[in-house]
Amino acid sequence: MESALLFADWLGTPAWMWLAFLGLVAGLLAFDLGVLHRDSREIGVRESLMLSALYIALGLGFGGWVWWALGSEPGLNYLTGFVVEKTLAMDNVFVIAMIFSFFAVPRAHQHRVLFWGILGVIALRAVMIGLGAALVTNFSWVLYVFAAFLVATGVKMLLFAETERPVGENPLVRLMKRRLNVTEEHHGERFFVRRPHPVTGRPALFATPLFMALVMIEVADVIFAVDSVPAIFAITTDPFIVYTSNIFAILGLRALYFALAAMIHRFAYLKVALSVVLIFIGSKIFVADLLGIGKIPPAVSLGVTFGILAAGVAYSLWRTRPGAAPGEAAR
User: Fold this and answer.
1) Is residue 328 part of a domain?
2) DSSP collapsed to 3 states, the chain
3) Each residue of 129-166: pLDDT tens digit?
4) Which of 85, 108, 131, 155 could disulfide-link to 249, CB 3.0 to 4.6 Å?
5) What is the number of structural domains in the chain?
């Protein structure tokens, strides 16, 4: 009976594969929090790069297992989704850095915020991907809506510079300060503290700036998921491939943040490459229909996506290299 349940089909994939994935993610999170970072401390660039390499290797290794277990096409779709989602997640670093700067979150406590943030991401992405899968299954035309949205987003990113609104002007920040008891100062790694209310004098629960930073990071992920979820559904509609590639790409973001935050300026043209990738992913659905070929082969999608992003990274590093002429440096 138990073996039958393990091999039962769940969203198009055997249940045991879902359990293996969830078990691996739970183990990684437990190892990260319980072994690597039991104490609050600042994470250096070297440690950040080593942990990032580990997470990327695990993500790619999982892709190899998907290839072996499900076949070459799901394997290639997973790798394409992983590369795209990883790049989109890296773009999120710019916003996270702004949030940490506004709330003056000490580097020693940033890992705690990012760890709890990733737990929220895992749940939120599951809900959003579940809704997306239900829409695509019941209304196939939604896939074309996703594709058109990606093309429009890519063109907007390519042609129009986005002006980031200061974190302090965000309506959610103002709402939290109006509706919650909020401390002005940090209290170590605590999200809430109990202290006398300034009006009544009675003990009351106060949110710390660390909690507000966590809320803002979760909201930022929801906003980024508006691009992320359609992008992966334009690559594949398999819920297992969509969710696993999403989560493995995001898992390493926490570790990669501390290295990227120190050298964000070196990736000035990555956003341009990402906009081209979004245009490519969205347009290939329409191109495939026009050519009557069903869909672009996964190997072609992976090759083009990786090539565009690699070119964007290489060009960024060259333009911002030490000793570059002022006119060459990225603005």
Assistant:
1) no
2) CHHHHHCCEECCEEHHHHHHHHHHHHHHHHHHHHHHCCCCCCCCHHHHHHHHHHHHHHHHHHHHHHHHHHCHHHHHHHHHHHHHHHHHHHHHHHHHHHHHHHCCCCHHHHHHHHHHHHHHHHHHHHHHHHHHHHHHHHCCCHHHHHHHHHHHHHHHHHHCCCCCCCHHHCHHHHHHHHHCCECCCCCCCCCEEEEECCCCCCEEEEECHHHHHHHHHHHHHHHHHHHHHHHHHCCCCCHHHHHHHHHHHHHCHHHHHHHHCCCHHHHCCHHHHHHHHHHHHHHHHHHHHHHCCCCCCHHHHHHHHHHHHHHHHHHHHHHCCCCCCCCCCCC
3) 888 888 888 887 788 888 888 888 888 887 875 555 56
4) 85
5) 1
